[in-house]
Each structure stands twice: as structure tokens, then as C-alpha cells.
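Bumping with the actual sequence this time:
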Amino acid sequence: MNIGQVETLLGMTRANIRYYEQEGLVFPQREANGYRDYSAEDVDTLRKIKLLRQLGLSLEVIRQLQQGECTLDAALTEREQALEHERAELDWAAQMCRQIRLDRTGYESLDAGRYLERLDRPADQPGHFDLRRDALPTVPHPWRRYFARSLDLGLYEMLWLPIWMLVFRLSPPDSVVGKLVSGYVNLVLMLVLEPLLLSTWGTTPGKAIFGLEVRDENGAKLTYRRALDRIWVLFEKGLGYGIPFYDIYRNYKSFRACSNGETLPWDAEQRLSYTIRDTRARRAVGYVAARGALLAAAVVLAFQSLMPIHRGAITPAEYADNINDIIRYQELDLSFRMEDDGAWSKISQPGVVVFALGEETRPNHQLTVEDGVVTAVRLEVVQQGEKFFYPYTMQPQLAVLAFGAARGEYNCISWTLENLTKYVVDRGLESYTLETHGLRITQEVEQEGYEAGGYLLFAEEEADTYLHWVFTIERV
């Protein structure tokens, strides 16, 4: 029969049965699918264990009985003598209760020391025949434990993602393979950092928010070695090595076991104590706040990654670096790069072009330089007799980002909120002037023989066309 049937038949909890298996007192067979199959002999063994435990025999004595190292008569005789002693203790404890009541001592005035000298039994000891003490301390709150771990993994991600995006200038992984790799990076950091946290702090940030702690059998913090062994078992049996779909299955199995009050393998194998301080609602509020903080950090990181790499007063070379970094990071066009004088040059580089800036007319960026520092950027296109004109909005956006966002008056938040690049796009082919944060942005459009069609200008029928487009961004 399965463990559920055994529970019903014997009136024992799943945690009790698993515990006795871990103690080597019962050995059910495993079927091909990994489930335990309890024989009639196993059930009879468990029934004997239940009886003898409720009579107060220790697990060690029961193990000796199974191995023939002592007789049942000798064990019961010793237990009977112990019960006589316990009965005397209990009778005396009852007398002590009566005496304290007769002394009419209140809680505030209770001289506990005087009474404890005469009564040395631990006040928090379970009842003599209570089987709950036969299960390792654990936390039957799977969702709390799951959210605690997910928060820890989110924190681990925020340790490496800024380096990935701001130092190596790589976009966040968004492909299936990229997300799988980033997931394993998080797991590697978990394998490295969690043992360190458990051995020094006794918990992790996610666990601390929910009041969760992991201790050894003596209530002390784990050694680094035991914490490391624990996390490896969790990686295998709880997270399924991070293998897609298999990890979902392992999470489900762990959820079911935890919900049933079982001690999970990574704690059971080392007889560790997993405890919770309380289940107050403020724990959930703390989790939501921490998640919100992580989300805010991720948003700021995303904004910061879009800022130019050179800030303040920039040289022509730094302006070109800003342009080329924006193109590379946002994968706009890998076939052109900007030189230090603001001119475009064709490069031969294999790969897929995600977005083309336009090759027929790619205006160079005319730089105004004073004392070695760029003070203005000018873009200009003059064309005559062409059938249409495409407003090269990507070029003004690049200039605004590389030069405007480099201004010290901006940070990633204020720049994103002002969103000058969107402003430039939305104005299309209008002539306008905008002054903001020490910048002046000007667009001047002169044209003849064209009519507007969305963002494009199309030549009117049999018309002579002329267009002069100038975009300027400068310091004021």
C-alpha cells in the first residue's frame, strides 16, 4: 500500500513515517516510478513502533529490539521502572503546582528560581507520549519558502546583471537560451553565496523577511560545509538541476511533501532544523516591499544602461564612442561606425543587421569643438529633384542621446522622464526650437514641391522638388 493508506490505517502522520524510515526502523520497497510500497510486514513494524513509542521507549531501544541486542521483557522492565520514577515526578509536580497556588503568588511576584531548584524538568518538554517530537522541526508553509527562495534568486540576479549591462555593455538576455543561461548564473551564485549566508547569518535575505531560519540539531548555525552539502541536495532534489520542466516537477514534489509536513531531503539528510518565527501579515508586506525594491532597481538599471558611457564635457572621440556604444548596445546597425570627426564609415562585420539607419543619405555629424570639448552637433541634408524625403529621425535621436544625455544636469531618471528622443520623433518635419536643461534643440525645414505622407515627404506630380533640413543640438 502507499503512504496515504498507511497513514489512514495506523493513524500516524506522514512526517512520523518518513522519520522512522530515516532512522532505519522500517524499509519499504520502491516501485519503478519511485513511490514507496509498504508491505504488510512494514505496516506491522510501524504498528509495533507506534505502540512502543507511546509506551515511551526510545528509538534507540526499539532499534536494539529489532537487531536482537536486547529482549522485550528487559526493555519493558526498564521502562516500567522509569515510568514509576516519572509518576513520582509528576505527582511531585502536581504538589508543586498546588503549593504555588497556596502561596498565592502572582505572575509578577513569582520567584521562579526558588521553585526551579526543586523542579528541574523543562517546562516546554512535549507530553511523555506525544509523537510530534519524532519529526524534525520543519516549516509546513511551502508558499512562504518558495517566495523566500525566489526573492533570494532575484537578489542574486541583481548582483551580476549590472556588471553584464553597464560594464560589458550587453543587452539583458531575452532569448530562450539567454534566459536559461541567466537562470544558471543565478543558481551558481546561490550555490556559492547561500552556504556563506547560512553559516554566518543563519538565514538569507528572503528567509529573513519571512522569519525563516536553518539550524543544526543543537540549534546552532550551520558550518559552511554542512550548509554547502544542504544546498547541493536542494539543487538536485528541489530544483532539478535547473533543467527546464524537470525543475517544475521537482518543485511540485517538494511542494506536496512540505504541505504534508514532511521534512524535505536537504534538511532531513543532515537532521537540520528549519524553523519560522511567526506568520504575521507584516511578513507578506515585507516581501511585497522587497519585490517592489527589486523591480525599482531593475527599472533604474534599464534606464541607466541607455545613458551614454561618457558624461559631462565630452571630446569628439568620446562623442563618437557614445554613438557607437548606443548602436552596438541597442543593436541598431552593425555595419557602420562613427569616426572621431563625426563622419560615418562602412565596416565589414558578419551578422544580422537589426535596423538600418539608411545608407543612401547618412548625414555626418558636424561637431563644434571649443577647447577640445564638443559644444554643438549639427546634421544637414540638402536634396533637389528627389521623389521623396525620409526624415532621418534615428540620426537626431543618436545626437540627442550621445550629446544631450551626456549633460551633467541629467540622471537616468530625469532623462527618461523628459524623453527628448520621443519629442524629436513626434515633431517629425516641423520647424521648432526647444530649450531645456542648458540645451537648445533646433530643427529647420525648407522644402518645395513635396507633400506630407505620414513621416515622409512625397514629390507632388510634375513638381520641381527642393529640401533643406538642418537639425542642431547645442549648449546654451
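The C-alpha cells above came from a reply further down the thread. The first helix runs from residue 3 to 10.
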